[in-house]
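Continued from yesterday's entry.
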Amino acid sequence: MGIPEGETKPEEQRLGPVLRRRDQVQPGTTDQRLLDTEGDSEWVHTDPWRVMRIQSEFVEGFGALAELPSAISVFGSARTKPDSPEYAAGVRLGRALVEAGFAVITGGGPGAMEAANKGAREAKGVSVGLGIELPFEQGLNSHVDIGVNFRYFFVRKTMFVKYAQGFVVLPGGLGTLDELFEALTLVQTRKVTRFPIVLFGTEYWKGLVDWLRDSVVAGGKASERDLLLFHVTDDVDEAVALVTKETGK
């Protein structure tokens, strides 16, 4: 739709705050160009459009989580089996965190995440799942009461940190290690106010802790005090006591 038949091109045109005259007058209106469905759709895959999607994910996440009570983020493997001791520990942990006055935030998936959400729900607490778009995992588990799905890992990880007062890390794989070291780095570099990080499962985490002490610290790549940034335990009550103590709750 351009200039109606029989009408001449206007000499002056106002498009929002912009004034155009003479040869700079554009055909049609801003609404018309917005609603016109014809044309190349490649623009939805460009970086400027991605920036808008990233911004919208932050807005949706902040809006959904802004009124959460004090919360603890619980990380762990999506591959943890429901009949395993680790799953049972996750359920106990989720329940105990709620009983201590916390909401529980997980990645919203199956396995250890589902276990913590299940414990939180059974204790009638706030059970939160922050999911991620992946090609090989299903959506949010059935025990999530507030769920947000993200396209971008870095937006999701911001939510884990911003809305939690501490982390408890159950045995997990690469994703869990990524979340753990992100938290340790943020605390070490003082990008966030120090908060407790508890590794649950001494046998599972022993090799990592030994490597940090005997290779990373011994090799001068980190300081001895960096080993104080986290605690290791096998006891649910101790894990909850540690996050409760350090958060001042």
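--- second protein ---
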Amino acid sequence: MIENVLEPVVNKSTRVLIVGSMPGQQSLEKQQYYGNPRNHFWPIMSELLEQCAPENYTERLNWLQQHGIGLWDTIKYCEREGSLDAAIRNEVPNDFETLLAQYPAIECVLFNGGKAEQVFKKRIGLNVLTGRHFYKMPSTSPIPGKNIKSFEEKVKSWSIIKTYIE
């Protein structure tokens, strides 16, 4: 069983919560969200926020929070060989009901890829998002999948975030 030890990155001013599935091996080893340097997450945020993401990880998290953006993952524990979402089995979800009750300013949840949304629906239920907007976004993962989008297409899709942070 793999444990996701990354805590939620959220504060009282978080308006958008970006929800991944389960960090890949590199991210777990580094103890960083989107720690794989090939992942498009940080470059996409840089495009959308019209600023270069800081190099330092702690500064990156602070930068997101200054823009009302938080991070967490759907899965707390799972079985998985490697880093592929498709290999995830027997997942146990994080406690979103408590988190969302503690942070009522969260208006929007963006699922980073299909697995994050799928597990959320199956293990948590979309009813905990009542009164909030939610969207499935194209994955920022560098791992090829069946619905590959270009970087520009991903930025365009992810631009929905601007509705909630500006």
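The two ends are 40 Å apart (CA to CA). The mean pLDDT is 94. Will compare against the first tomorrow.
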